[in-house]
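haha ok so turns out i had the wrong file open the whole time. this is the CORRECT one, sorry everyone. sequence first:
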Amino acid sequence: MPATRHRRSIPALAALAAAAVAAPLLLAAAPAQAHGQREGRLARELVEEVTARGAYRHLARFQQIADANGGNRAAGTPGHAASAAYVHDTLKKAGYAVSYQDFDIYEAHTRTERTTVLGASGRELATAAFTFTPSTPAGGLTAPLALARVDETPGCSADDYASDTFTGKIALVKRGSCTFAEKQKAAAQAGAAGVIVYNHSGTTPVRGGFSSPSEGVVPSAGITLADGEALAAAAAAGEVRVRLDLDQEHVKKTTRNVVAETRGGRVDRVVTVGAHLDSVPEGPGINDNGSGSAGLLEVALKLADEGANKKGRGPANRVRFAWWSAEELGLLGSEHYVAQLSEKQKEDIALYLNFDMIASPNPVQFVYDGDDSDKTGEGAGPAGSDRIEALINGFLDARRTPHEGSDFDGRSDYGPFIANGIPAGGTFTGAEGVKTAEQAARHGGTAGAPYDPNYHGAGDTLKNVDLKAFDTNLDVIAHAVGTYAQSLRSLGR
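then structure:
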């Protein structure tokens, strides 16, 4: 275990936490000082008690599990099953009401992925079959190319496909703006027999996919930007025929979410906190997302130490922790969970907090932009998301920790919650994006390098996490959970 960072002194830590609780941004109306102190007690105590040393042991356990199970903890594998059992059994011993939620997933095994340009200038193109694509007929699908319109939303809507020109042809579509499923659906509705998506940047083929085999309508694959532009230019000048040859097997598996909640607290004011537990098949996923999973687990254990599961000592509001599976396959675990809720159960969820990748080795402290103050991307979250952002920002400001907004782009498990009108927030420290010079000046680290150079790779190990960023975000989780468990005043309720 690496050397542990020295924690702040308890008096200084308590003062900072108290300042964050009392900050004007955090409360809809300023409470009396005594009331504010009572309201912030649990948050202060959790921040004091949750440590990187304590949570590191969970990261180490996830690494051990991956090492013993083929190097990963992907959904539907023994590595994920062992991770889920570890979380489940640890929380059960701490007194939580813990349950598994099983659901089906599919695993794609690609046997053939090939695109061949026919004719005198024939050649074979680097090709990546989309995950859960239908296979082509034996020997491949041979047809002329038809070009989808390239605009700000290329191939995303019906009017990007000229009437009667796509029937029986293979649609060539540029990547960008909408999902691969939306592009495929629009092309298929125009009569296309297959879809080839070319990249909008880089030198590698598009690696896209669908959430399940049922979402795949026609054979679909990705190619490079250069090959796509060359095909588009040739097809604009005359007919270009290609053979798309895809053969993919879809194997059904079962995986599970782990859900644990306090035994007390108001059931109509549920504070839900989540992180995905699965890794990609290519690596152990210690930052993505062992870090968020370990952080939640350690906060849950310290909350139990505070009497969360003892009669008469629990928090005012029910706290529900969730470890999602199959996030890496398209948020399948959290989507399944939300889809199973009744309307009343959705209404009872006061808010959702999400923590995904909180120990990136070249980190930036990102906070989900609940109020859309950055004016980029998808806009504000549901009402209350702005107050969650303010609570987290206020806490970080009181600690003089630099931070910046992150768009609600739906890339993590808050997506199904905000889609159902549930306010959400949270933090992360960056994935494959590249750190700017301005960010390096504010947050430290290396400009021009990814926030996590090991993202979705074998290098996402225990050796490649930033414990300082991890510690900061553990405190954010502890403060938010402690605050909302006791009171929703800062949420305007």
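The longest strand covers residues 97-117.
again sry for the mixup
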